[in-house]
Amino acid sequence: MDKSSLDTERRPAPERPRRPRWWGRAAGALVVTALLVALVVRFGLIPGVGALFGDLFGVDTRDRSGPVLLKSIQDMHRYEGAVGNFQVVADLEKDAPYLPDSIRGTRTLYVGAGTVSGYVDLGKLDDHAVTVNGDRTEATLRLPHAALGTVTLDLDRSYAVSQQRGILDRLGDLFSDNPGGEEAVQRLAVQHIGEAARGSGLAERAEKNTTSMLEGLLRSLGFRQVTVSYV
Predict the structure, then answer these.
(1) Per-residue pLDDT in tens (0 to 9) along the chain, 231 residues
(2) Which of the residues 61, 164, 194, 225 has the least number of beta carbons within 10 Å of its own beta carbon?
(3) Do residues 129 and 105 touch, judged by C-beta distance below 8 A?
(4) Contact at 8 Å (CB) between 148 and 197?
C-alpha cells in the first residue's frame, strides 16, 4: 500500500453543512409574509386585498374612559357681540433638501373650518365707567374696545383633501403612534383663520352689537338717552 493511499484513509471526512431547522425557516417565512401583507394592506398596492384582510388586521375601538371630573367653574363677564365663521384651505409642504418628493417629503391639503368670537369685557369696569344723571333719564357708558377670542377649529367640518407622502414617510408611518398626523396642518389652519379674523371687522361688529344690546336694555329700564363709547 503506497503512502498516498494511507493519507487518504487517515484524512477525516468533511463535515456536511448543518441545515437550518425547519421551524427557523418557517418562522422567517411567516415574518416576511406578514410584512408583505401589511405593506399591501397599508398602502393599497393590490386593489381588493385591503378589504380581504381588513377584518384580519382590523383594530377594535373601545371607550374605557373614566368619569369626567369638574375641575372649576369660571363666571364670564364678557358679552359676545359677534361670531365669525371661517374656512381656509391650508397647504402644508415639507421637503428634504437633497431627496426627491417621491422618496422623502409630504404635502397636505386641508380644509379647516373654525369660528372666532368678538366680545366686550364687562368684568373690569370701574366706578367711572357708568354715569347716570340725577333724574335717571340719561346714561353714559365707557367700555373697553372689543377683543377677539381664540380660534375654535370645528373638526366635524374640517378634513384633509389630499395627502402626498414619500416612500420613507410612508414606511415611518408603520412604526408611528400617529401615522399621517394632521396636527401641523391644523395649527396652520388655525393661524390663517386667526389672521383673517383680525382683518375682517369682527371686533367692530361686536362693539356695534354690544351698543345696540345696552341701548335696548337701558331704554327698557326708563332711560331716554344712552351713550356708549369705547376707550
Answers:
(1) 555 554 555 555 555 555 556 556 666 666 667 666 666 555 555 555 555 555 555 567 788 888 988 888 877 789 999 999 999 999 887 766 766 666 666 788 999 999 999 999 988 788 889 999 989 999 999 999 999 999 999 999 999 988 777 665 555 554 454 545 688 899 999 999 999 999 999 999 999 999 999 999 999 999 999 999 999
(2) 61
(3) no
(4) yes
Q: How many CA atoms lie within 13 A of 112 on its CB side?
A: 28
Sheet bearing 130-132, strands edge to edge: 130-132, 138-143, 225-230
With beta carbons less than 8 A apart as the criterion, state whether 119 and 149 touch.
Answer: yes
How far, in Å, are 117, 213, 215 from residue 221 at the CA level? 28, 13, 10
Rounded-to-integer distance, Cα 32 and Cα 7, Å: 48
pTM: 0.64
Cα distances (angstroms) measured from residue 106 to each of 10, 91, 101, 139, 166: 69, 11, 7, 60, 6
Using an 8 Å Cβ cutoff, are 170 and 69 in contact? no
Strand, helix or coil for residue 181: coil
Q: Say if residues 118 and 203 touch (Cβ distance below 8 Å).
A: yes
The C-alpha atoms of residue 170 and residue 80 are separated, in whole angstroms, by: 45
Q: SS3 breakdown of the chain: % helix, strand, coil, rounded to 5?
A: 35, 25, 40
**Dihedral, CA atoms, 169, 175, 177, 179, nearest 10 degrees?**
30
